[in-house]
Amino acid sequence: MVKIMPIIRPISELRNNFHRISEYCHKNAEPVYLTKNGKGDLVVMSQALFEEYISLLELYQKMSVAEQQEAENVPCLTHEEVFNRLKERIDAKKL
């Protein structure tokens, strides 16, 4: 994916052209950076993009924990053990 230059606008555009900024964020799945007095102040993005960023952040955090556990030789379960435990829990709830 080729990353284009970020869209940077003065914060007044949020008030004056909200619909245009909203449409851009949704159509292009990119944030718009807003400045106040020439300095970075806010970032506006669609809710879908925000949720995608949050999901990626949570995934990276979980991967970091897993890498640390692996480095510390923390015992782990095989896929078969995980699925068997899940199946046992599901079967127990059926009773």
**In CATH, what is the class?**
Alpha Beta
Order of helices and strands: EHHEEHH
Average pLDDT, all residues:
93
General form: elongated
Number of structural domains? 1
For the secondary structure, the number of strands is 3
Beta-strand content estimate:
15-25%
Q: State the share of residues found in helices, binned by percent.
A: 55-70%
Cα Rg: 22 Å
Can you identify the CATH superfamily?
YefM-like domain
Do you know the CATH topology?
YefM-like fold
Q: Please, how many helices?
A: 4
Give the strand line-up of the largest sheet.
Answer: 1-2-3
Helix and strand content put the structural class at alpha+beta
| CATH architecture identity | 3-Layer(aba) Sandwich
